[in-house]
Amino acid sequence: AAFYRLHGLQTVTLRYFNVFGPRQDPRSPYSGVISIFVSRLLASEAITVFGDGEQCRDFVEVSDVVRANVLAATAPGAAGRCYNIGGGRRTTLNELLQVLGPLCGGAPQLSYGPARAGDVRASLADISRVRAELGFSPTVSVAEGLQRLVAFERSTRAGANDG
Fold this sequence. Notes:
163 residues; 17% strand; two-stranded parallel sheet; three-stranded mixed beta sheet
């Protein structure tokens, strides 16, 4: 934003909330909770939830993020602006696990541990500006995105076993 104001360099700032989707490495320190949960569930490994599982996040599927990027890059008047990119809806970790269990083949082996110090209890993107100015609204629900992700991971694992 400073370079736009000072030098006229056309920039748009996008604040991504909890992005999830195919090809996110669950071993990465930057990986989100969804890719970790899916990886462990498909491997029939136990999951530890830190806290009571009622902490919530605003999850947004990667194809919606791509669409937001294209809109921001091509919209007249977007230069110098800042937009939150999220799903605009809170989802708890317990809700994620309720959906993912059946998608991954059964009830997860869960244990709950102490909450992590400094963990944010609730996060929600205010997407009103990006909706009004760029016409962005998420089109992929969390449930649909989870279905897509699990299907992708299953196909990837099947392909790895074919070789």
